[in-house]
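Database export, one record per block. Field names are fixed; values are copied verbatim from the stored entry.
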Amino acid sequence: MVVVSVIGCGECHYCKQQTWSLCDNSNPNAGLQEKIYQYPTAGIFGYSHLFGGYAGSHAEFIRVPFAEYGAFKIPEDIPDTKAVFVSDGIPTGFMAAEMASIKPGDIVAVLGAGGVGQMAIQSAYLMGAEKVIAIDRFDYRLAAAATYSHAEVLNYEATDILEALKESTGGRGPDCCIDAVGMEAHTTGMEHYYDRSKQFLRLQSDRPAVLRQAITACRKGGTVSVVGVYAGLVDKIPMGLFLNKGLTMRGGQMHGQRYVPRLFEHIRNGKIDPSFLLTHPMSLEEGAYAYRIFNDKLDNCMRAVFIPSQSFVGD
């Protein structure tokens, strides 16, 4: 079985509309969340007390509420090493591409080439994109985007991204820009120090550099899709650009239950292949090391996946 990371009751207005991450009934801490976000949203496994306080998948025991809606049997012809990413990474990337309203022939920029960004690239091609441009600063991520997801790549530490995107699109800009980074964005120059300082002084909670760049780079009349997580307040969002360029922005936590059967079919047909994301298979006993290399982006780690009763360090 694979369990979707977002929890939906299956019976409320939002679940019936297939917008599972907006569920009214799966977050036991809805009152706390309502004080911050005005309306409560769904519970999420391993995603803080604000989203229900549920244990994550690496806890000793996990309670799976509404399992009849969130747990899916893995088809026998799909290996666990691919199916594990259907819990979160693939549906998030797929939803990012879907929200971008990609049409055949579109040029798409994906900002952030981690696991979600990689799946957004593959999903964008699946939806008809002519060209996808991946933007990151880590060479191993950019190499994976080029090799496995067939994207053109740009390193933002070595390139003026806005000018490079204009050049790559005949001066028009990408039709769609996907923010697959979110609140912990890294950037260069004074913008980096500005965001760090505001965050340190508690004047903003998130660093929105990628969101700014997506709005700036997107063509007139284009779409900005946001799946990178934001938690609270951000500053210096170029709303003048957003308004006067006639952009559309969509965002949200992924509605995994809507996509899982479709994603299994895409994996089976080879349209989406997440297997290259599993760079570090590990045992549960090696969990602390796995978290460190993933968090600190060491040893070219895309994803560490725990396989109980096995040891891989030093193999």
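Remark 1: The chain is about 35% helix and 15% strand.
Remark 2: The CA atoms of residues 46 and 153 lie 32 Å apart.
End of record.
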